[in-house]
User: Which sequence fits this backbone?
């Protein structure tokens, strides 16, 4: 069953075409990475998926339904944690449920459970400025999961973190996505992250962005990106992606 | 500050409190005997004890407390109305860039115009009542509040609003859960400025016309060449300002308790 689908989607800003004729489908429980040069329209695609921005032409569907506005089953997460400084961590995690009218007791319980799962049990009543960057991004992940979305849209969620923290968070996310069978579209510039986290990788061209290649990652243990990173096949995928993205040509 | 909190304070904080108390005593002493020592006549700077005596005399004979109350009431009412209006306009303009574009020349003109110059005009309109004074106060309080709220709405990261919208927030939820709390720190910065201006607004109104309020006593004192009476009114006006400022800071420290201490310390 297709959770998220783009059918021949084009997005123009004025006279500039950001993405052109993009079609893709993500099945239930699948994790797909989107990779491509800067400015090729990855974030634009994600914004259309979340229902915040309309497509200029083509259709975006979630669970077979046309997306015209934000939808309770889709949640997004950005590079910025976007935690509200006036709310404690647990209150921040509750934000989505609060907006959706979940009762106080229920949402507090769920937020607490998630914070324990995201390994922040000691920071529940702290304010965001008291947390490190990695911890803040964990809290942002908990906030995204709190509304129990079926589809997660993530725009470079870990790109602002240091290498070690990033690996730990990837591991946590990989495990959570697998355990809860969530569907996810993950934008990243990190080739290894794309390989370690996803079932498939979609590669986009320069602007106007199109999908030029689909790579199926045939490595076991999708629930453990840490294990996957060490797999010998990774190097081969990196070479393939580098060629597609013309990274060597760009450096020459 | 309560006595209990004085006792539980850190030793270095206690030292600082003791220091500022000492300084105050020194200041009073200097005021009492300094002018005499430098040969400054009493009608230029009356010693502290004269001002105190004049204060007691004015309380007994000139209804000083009544006049102080009137001024304080006008300051309070003008401040609250000006702040509410400022908040309202700040949010309205902040959310509607086109309205701000159309209105900005007028807002700028009004902001640059010396607000106190409106006092005679308001007195022509409303006579020697409390209304012109309150109105000047409203006008003068309005701008710093509105500008700060407007700036805060503009400065808000649009991605935060988008995040809320992605959780299916409606317009009202975006306002109460995001925009309003986000505007509070700049709002309080504006309130602090407004608190210091509010007294000026009312005072100018009272100086221009009427026979009540500290401004009236001030002009009477001036006419009589009564320097001590002028000092008394200046001190009371300052105390009203300090009280208002203190209230703002007290509310601020409760509302903005989440800010890191160093961001709040700057009083
Ligand atoms: N609201 C907008 N108005 C006008 N142009 C826009 C808007 N949003 C994006 N663009 C343009 O669309 C193009 C694609 O932007 P987008 O943010 O989707 O790129 P991206 O692939 O996410 O890049 P990056 O990897 O650097 O994040 C860019 O050229 C950008 O300038
Ligand atoms: Mg982007």
Assistant:
């Amino acid at each position: 069953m297709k959770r998220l689908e783009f059918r021949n989607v084009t997005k123009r800003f004025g006279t500039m075409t950001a993405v052109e004729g993009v079609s893709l489908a993500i099945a239930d429980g699948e994790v797909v990475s989107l990779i491509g040069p800067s400015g090729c329209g990855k974030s634009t695609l994600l914004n259309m998926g979340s229902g915040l921005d309309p497509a200029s032409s083509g259709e975006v569907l979630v669970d077979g339904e046309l997306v015209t506005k934000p939808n309770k089953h889709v949640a997004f997460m950005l590079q910025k944690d976007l935690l509200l400084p006036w709310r404690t961590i647990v209150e921040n995690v509750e934000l989505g449920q609060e907006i959706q009218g979940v009762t106080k007791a229920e949402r507090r319980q769920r937020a607490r459970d998630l914070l324990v799962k995201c390994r922040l049990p000691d920071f529940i009543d702290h304010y965001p400025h008291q947390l490190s960057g990695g911890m803040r991004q964990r809290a942002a992940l908990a906030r995204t999961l709190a509304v129990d979305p079926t589809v997660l849209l993530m725009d470079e969620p870990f790109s602002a973190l240091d290498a070690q923290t990033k690996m730990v968070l990837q591991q946590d996310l990989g495990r959570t996505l697998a355990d809860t069978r969530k569907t996810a579209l993950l934008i990243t510039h990190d080739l290894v992250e794309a390989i370690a986290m996803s079932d498939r990788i979609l590669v986009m061209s320069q602007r106007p962005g199109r999908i030029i290649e689909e790579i199926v990652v045939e490595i076991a243990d999708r629930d453990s990106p840490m294990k996957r990173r060490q797999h010998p096949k990774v190097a081969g995928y990196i070479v393939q992606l580098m060629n597609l993205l013309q990274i060597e040509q760009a450096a020459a | 500050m309560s006595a209990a909190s004085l006792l539980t304070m850190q030793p270095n904080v206690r030292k600082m409190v003791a220091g500022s108390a000492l300084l105050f005593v020194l200041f009073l002493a200097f005021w009492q005997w300094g002018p005499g020592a430098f040969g400054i006549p009493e009608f230029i700077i009356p010693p502290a004890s004269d001002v105190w005596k004049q204060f007691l005399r004015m309380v007994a004979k000139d209804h000083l407390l009544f006049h102080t109350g009137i001024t304080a009431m006008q300051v309070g009412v003008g401040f609250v109305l000006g702040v509410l209006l400022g908040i309202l306009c700040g949010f309205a303009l902040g959310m509607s860039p086109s309205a701000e574009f159309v209105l900005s020349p007028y807002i700028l003109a009004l902001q640059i115009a010396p607000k106190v110059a409106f006092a005679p005009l308001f007195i022509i309109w409303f006579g020697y009542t409390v209304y012109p004074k309150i109105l000047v106060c409203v006008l003068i309080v309005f701008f710093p509040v509105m500008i700060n709220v407007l700036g805060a709405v503009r400065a808000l990261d649009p991605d935060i609003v988008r995040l809320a919208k992605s959780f299916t927030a409606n317009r009202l939820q975006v306002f109460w859960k995001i925009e309003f709390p986000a505007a509070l720190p700049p709002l309080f910065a504006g309130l602090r400025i407004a608190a210091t201006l509010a007294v000026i607004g009312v005072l100018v109104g009272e100086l221009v016309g009427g026979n009540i309020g500290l401004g009236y006593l001030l002009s009477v004192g001036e006419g009589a060449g009564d320097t001590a009476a002028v000092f008394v009114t200046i001190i009371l006006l300052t105390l009203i300002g300090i009280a208002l400022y203190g209230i703002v800071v007290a509310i601020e420290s409760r509302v903005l308790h989440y800010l890191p201490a160093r961001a709040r310390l700057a009083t």
Q: What stands out?
A: The radius of gyration of chain A is 18 Å. The pocket of magnesium ion (ligand 2) is lined by residues A 42-43, 155 (CB under 6 Å). The first helix of chain A runs from residue 42 to 49. Chain A is about 35% helix and 25% strand.
